[in-house]
Amino acid sequence: MTPSPGKQLREAVAQAPIQVPGAFNALAAMLIEEAGFEAAYLSGAALSAGTLAVPDVGLFTLTELAQQTQYLARSVDIPIIVDADTGFGDVLNVERTVIELESAGAAAIQIEDQQLPKRCGHLSGKTLVEPEQMCAKLKAAANARSDEGLVLIARTDARGVTGLDDAIERSKRYLDAGADWIFPEALESKEEFERFGQAIEAPLVANMTEFGKSPLLTLEELADLGYSAVLYPVTLMRVAMKMVEAALVTMAETGSQKELLDMMQTREELYELLNYRGYEDRDRSYFSGTK
Length: 291
Hints:
- The structure is a single chain.
- The protein is an alpha/beta fold.
- It is globular and about 60 Å long.
- The longest helix has 20 residues, at 235-254.
- The chain is built from twelve helices and eight strands.
- The strands form two sheets. A five-stranded parallel β-sheet has the order 2-3-4-5-6. Strands 1-8-7 form a three-stranded parallel β-sheet.
- It has two domains: 5-234, Alpha-Beta Barrel (TIM Barrel); 241-285, no CATH class.
- Helices cover 48% and strands 11% of the residues.
């Protein structure tokens, strides 16, 4: 039997630490898989900006997140880690969040300990829920999952609000409440990553987002510090959008797209990625032998 997405993810990190690029749409997820990465990340920031063109302040709905999760999970065989922000409400809302995202194909669901209105994890001005409230959410999440392999990731934003010591203590309580992995957001130095890794005995997630508070460490460095999964939430979207900007300038200045051809994915490359020929073959097969 094929393992569930969650079990597949657990098996991957049990073998070695993994890199997890963010997929801002299903086509990007397919490229991530084709490039040999073992998982992809559905970032709340990428969904907010890339799909809705709004900031990452908790504006998308559970329905929109579940739909995007389903798009990604159906397009690839690698597991998808899903950023569920604060869980869309209190404990009963968290139950439904887990049910919907697991049904959509999520391998892991990440819930954070911010209060609404939430903010990007690498910005100032965040506020936290009390540890008891976050623990209750994690208990609800664990109770709601139907597959024990589904990974529950507790993200703590405490480093930027109450300090590293509180982030560590909260994380220990979150593990006791049912979290499988811990995600310390916005650590500010390699030494902080090391200290956190020494203090927490569980698979750890590192966020290597660009232009934030954390130093950009390599997979090897983070593996040595005890981290199991390294996220690159909006890297691909940032690169793609910068290329879009450059292409628009070129088209406006030259009156043509000819100078951009060498930078484009060709029609054949796109068709190969989408298995276009397979669709054509099935289409013809339905008419074979008909009168």
